[in-house]
Amino acid sequence: MNTLTDHLNALVTPTPYAAAVAHPFLTSAASLSLPTNRLALYLFQDRIYAAQAYPRFIAQLITKIPLDDTTHAPFATRTLTILVGCLTNIVREVTFFDTTARTYNLPLDHGYWRERKATRDYTAEMARIGALASLEDGLVFLWAMEKIYLDAWSTVYAALPEASSSQVLEAQSQVDLTAKAITDLSYNWSSSNPDFAQFVKELGDLVDDYFTPVMAGHSLAGRSAREALAHAEAIWARVVELEAEFWPDEGEEDTLHYA
User: Fold this and answer.
1) pLDDT given for residue 167 in this prediction
2) Is residue 185 part of a domain?
3) Phi and psi for 257 in degrees, rounded to 5?
4) Sign of the dihedral through C-alpha 138, 143, 144, 150
5) Which of 12, 13, 143, 208 has a C-alpha 20 to 30 A away from that of 242?
6) Average pLDDT of 157-163?
7) Does residue 144 form part of some domain?
8) Which pLDDT band, with edges at 50, 70 and 90, does 166 fall under?
9) pLDDT at position 223 over 90
10) How many domains does the chain have?
11) Which band of pLDDT confidence, cut at 50, 70 and 90, is reported for residue 164?
């Protein structure tokens, strides 16, 4: 019997998976040719996601955990532990954004960049799922976000020039500083970082355990197996679409900053 995550990973989505994990932004990052301001624009958008939308989304999922259900208490406690860990992780991530920006001279000031429409679309969908979806669907959304992010940056880190990926590049100019920033960022969010890789695996395992009945043809949370699976597939496809749109395109760094 396939797991849900295996099923979703094999799914052909309207927005191809490659659009989310091999966008030109990422290929430019992997070749260390990404302009400094395009990287800064991206980090500004990602900081909005991390500092504002993500904590609210996790908090909404926590409120959906049936902690008073003594029959499934260990499962509920496991879910709560993982989601609380998400909040701890995101505090560390926001600090990492700010430290990286200072270290590598990347402008992240709110008075410098405008928010992209793709950022608003992403955070709006997180708010909708957090408010209206079931806990199970919310966990699929959460895993999908983290899984695609892991795959995208793992591809970047694996493709970096050897001198950069071994982190021996000497910074002598802003170009070098940007290259070092890309190296640090891509390592942090790649499968080479065991902490992040393990975190994504734990999320995937949790989702698979919730959906074990569905993959065996049984109902889940009042929905038939077919309906529950269709919901999960739609969520996965939507996150692929949102992730593909989240990467800035060439030239946006020139049109999305305040004069």
Assistant:
1) 47
2) yes
3) -110, 150
4) positive
5) 208
6) 84
7) yes
8) very low
9) yes
10) 1
11) low
Residues 6+ apart with CB under 8 A from 240: 13, 15, 16, 17, 19, 20, 144, 148
- Quick check: 234 and 90 in contact, CB under 8 A? no
- Burial letters for 16-49: b for 16+ Cβ neighbours within 10 Å, e otherwise? ebeebbbbebbebbbebebebbbbbbbbbbbbbb
- DSSP label at 72? G
Distance, in Å, from the CA atom of 212 to the CA atom of 37, rounded to the nearest integer, reads: 45
pLDDT digits (tens, 9 = 90+) for 68-123: 877 667 889 999 999 999 999 999 999 999 999 999 999 887 788 999 999 999 99
Domain residues for 208? Answer: 4-249
Q: Which residues, listed in sequence order, are joined to residue 223 by a DSSP beta bridge?
A: 220
- Strand (E) or helix (H) holding 203: helix 194-210
The SS3 call for residue 113 is: strand
* Overall pTM > 0.90: yes
14 located within any domain: yes
- Residue 257 maps to a domain: no
Mean pLDDT, the chain, whole residue set: 92
Residue indicated by tokens 């990926």: 165
* Residue whose C-alpha is closest to residue 234's, from 149, 144, 121: 144
Q: What is the CATH number of the domain that holds 39?
A: 1.20.910.10
From the number of C-beta atoms within 10 Å of its C-beta (0-12, 13-18, 19+), residue 107 rates as middle
Q: How far is residue 136 CA from its own chain's centroid?
A: 18
Instruction: Residue 195: count other Cβ atoms within 10 Å of its Cβ.
Output: 9
